[in-house]
């Protein structure tokens, strides 16, 4: 779809492989007071709808997150409409906090948020630059500022995603340079010189302490999104999406076995929601491959696509109440294969 007026082309990774090109916006004329504006005519609207559809297709559940994303989209679309009538207002603050456990979709939402903000002209490129403490904090005096500014420069015009952001703040260590990072981020977030959106991400309790200790930072974060752990039903639906997406399928017995697997695995240590589901499916594929080779016969398309209960039930989760990882258990139970 070609950009026109104050519309913006949305780059779609994986689909439209064309590079993002700098665009020269043509400022449309101010409309008369009695004019009527058709919002559906805004080119950005179609791109935003596409991004929201992708978000719905990619992520199970997370109704509160999807609602907030749609609210942000509505705010920016209406702001564009107001500009057509010459109605000026302050630029909405889009800095965000994503709190939740591992594997709850924070990175995926950040990617789609960047695409949506770009489509609506709030940022210049639909890109996310992900960093952690190690990418920002230096090891000696004078090292932190250049590292932090380099990360900001790479993210300029897009989204800077800071994972486990609370590790920037270590009050127990007076010689720690994380506070310098926070001060630089505060300046950038306030001035918005780089046209940058910053997303802080991490576990809810630690993020709460992080913002409480840095009230200046918290006051600049307009949107706090909480990513809840997935329910059993949601994880099972996620597993089905993943399996189908890789051109596999569960037979009925495997589906029931995987449901049982999730019930057991969710109570064990280090469970990471969709990430753990992905790891479990990868282990099922390993077992399927071994099982098919042992058949020593020609294989059909159905053979190559189907995961059976045997591929699921070989997990140590079914025989070891203390197992935290999805490891294989040989038939003899005499030895344990190391966790993947």
- Helix proportion range: 40-55%
Write down the CATH class of the largest domain: Alpha Beta
CATH architecture of the largest domain: 3-Layer(aba) Sandwich
Question: Mean of residue pLDDT?
Answer: 87
Number of strands: 7
Unreliable stretches: 1-22, 330-340
Assembly type of the shown chains? single chain
Shape: globular
Topology:
Blueprint: H1 43-58, H2 63-84, E1 96-100, H3 106-119, E2 128-131, H4 133-136, H5 144-155, E3 159-163, H6 178-191, E4 197-202, H7 204-213, H8 215-218, E5 223-227, H9 232-245, E6 249-250, H10 252-265, H11 274-295, H12 301-305, E7 306-307, H13 309-313
Parallel strand pairs: 1-4, 1-5, 2-3, 3-4, 6-7
Q: Can you characterise this structure?
A:
Pfam families: AAA, AAA_lid_6. This is AAA family ATPase. Keywords: ATP-binding, Nucleotide-binding. The longest helix has 22 residues, at 63-84. β3 (159-163), α6 (178-191) and β4 (197-202) form a beta-alpha-beta unit. By secondary structure, the chain is of the alpha/beta class. The chain has 2 domains: 40-227, Rossmann fold (3-Layer(aba) Sandwich), CATH 3.40.50.300; 232-318, Helicase, Ruva Protein, domain 3. It is built from 13 helices and 7 strands. α1 (43-58) packs antiparallel against α3 (106-119), α2 runs parallel beside α3 and α9 crosses α11 (274-295). The strands form 2 sheets. A 5-stranded parallel β-sheet has the order 2-3-4-1-5, with helices on both faces. Strands 6-7 form a two-stranded parallel ribbon. Residues 1-22 and 330-340 have low confidence and may be disordered. 32% of the residues are buried.
């Amino acid at each position: 779809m070609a950009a026109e007026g104050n519309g913006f082309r949305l780059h779609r990774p994986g689909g439209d492989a064309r590079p993002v090109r700098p665009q020269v916006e043509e400022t449309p004329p101010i409309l008369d007071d009695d004019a009527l504006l058709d919002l559906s005519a805004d080119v950005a609207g179609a791109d935003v709808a596409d991004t929201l559809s992708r978000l719905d297709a990619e992520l199970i559940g997370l109704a509160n997150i999807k609602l907030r994303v749609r609210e942000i989209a509505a705010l920016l679309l209406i702001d564009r409409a107001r500009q057509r009538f010459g109605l000026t207002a302050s630029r909405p603050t889009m800095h965000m906090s994503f709190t939740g456990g591992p594997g709850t979709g924070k990175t995926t939402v950040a990617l789609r948020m960047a695409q949506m903000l770009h489509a609506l002209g709030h940022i210049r490129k639909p890109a996310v630059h992900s960093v952690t403490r190690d990418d920002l904090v230096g090891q000696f005096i004078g090292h932190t500022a250049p590292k932090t500014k380099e990360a900001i420069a790479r993210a300029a015009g897009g989204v800077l995603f800071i994972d486990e952001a609370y590790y920037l703040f270590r009050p127990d260590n007076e010689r720690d340079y994380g506070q310098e990072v926070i001060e630089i981020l505060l300046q950038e977030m306030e001035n918005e010189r780089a046209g940058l959106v910053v997303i802080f991400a991490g576990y809810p309790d630690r993020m709460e302490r992080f913002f409480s200790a840095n009230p200046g930072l918290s006051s600049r974060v307009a949107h706090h999104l909480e990513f809840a752990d997935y329910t059993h039903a949601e994880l099972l639906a996620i597993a089905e999406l993943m399996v189908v997406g890789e051109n596999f399928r569960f037979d009925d017995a495997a589906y029931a076995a995987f449901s049982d697997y999730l019930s057991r695995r969710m109570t064990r240590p280090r469970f990471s929601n969709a990430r753990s589901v992905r790891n479990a499916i990868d282990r099922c594929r390993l077992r399927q491959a071994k099982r098919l080779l042992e058949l020593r016969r020609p294989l059909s398309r159905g053979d190559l696509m189907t995961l059976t209960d045997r591929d699921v039930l070989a997990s140590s989760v079914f025989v070891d109440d203390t197992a935290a990882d999805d490891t294989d258990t040989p038939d003899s139970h005499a030895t344990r294969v190391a966790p993947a």
